[in-house]
Amino acid sequence: MAGIKQNIVYGPVLSRRLGISLGINLLPVSKKICTFDCLYCECGWTKVNINESIKNYDFPEFKDIKVALINALSNNYHSIEHITFAGNGEPTLHPDFSSIVDEVIMIRDKFLPETKIAILSNSTTLKNANILEALKKLDLRIMKLDAGNQETFKIYNRPVVEINISDIIEGLMNLKEIVIQSLFTKGKCGNYNNKNISDWINLLLKIKPKSVQIYSLDRSYPSDDILPLNKKELTEIQSELVKYNIKSEVF
Questions:
Q1: Where does residue 106 rank: exposed (0-12), middle (13-18), buried (19+ CB within 10 A)?
Q2: CA count, 13 A, side-chain hemisphere, 154
Q3: What 3-state DSSP class applies to 140?
Q4: CATH no., domain 9-250
Q5: 10 Å Cβ neighbour count for 170?
Q6: Domain ranges of the chain
Q7: Is 116 exposed, middle or buried (0-12, 13-18, 19+ CB in 10 A)?
Q8: 64-78, 145-159, 192-206: lowest mean pLDDT where?
Q9: What integer pLDDT is reported at residue 30 of this predicted model?
């Protein structure tokens, strides 16, 4: 899939949600490693067995991440709006994630102190206290929640580890000032249906995010069982959130 990143630091790219963003890929450059196998992932299917010892995977080393970021920021990227942890899967799976966050903050403060540090996460690692504390240090936490119930969660996000949607909700409730990202699709296995949206809104009311990002397919995706929503359909979802005074944006 075209979404696989070949470098530790990539971009800057023009992001729909983050403006000019410099990406940091904490996952191996040759493969996707994730706790999900989402139908819509631009990186393709999850082929790595995450239940094996995670330390066996070829994660980029701490020193290489540091050098790559310093080299990128030394090239006078004064227009960068966000430095974003994203890449080939779930960034918090890197065994040294907490230490890397501290180092990236120090490098940012030296080179581009006005630039925000963000993460795109699938919300599955929040039971880890070290990861939770590291996430709290970031300026922008964009956390995934596409499903409103366990049935949709299993079909749509296809977790490859033992986790229930209730575990994710509990973790998100412990992480304040977050942005929820929700990708909606229609089709045989899509999550765009009245029951899922109603259940999803009920979960948002528990989580109390500062805002919600609603969007649909914009890049390549591996499944034939989903289709993109149009702007009108996305806006209809947003109108339901307005009824509950939940702030949201459509992308």
A1: exposed
A2: 7
A3: strand
A4: 3.20.20.70
A5: 14
A6: 9-250
A7: middle
A8: 64-78
A9: 78
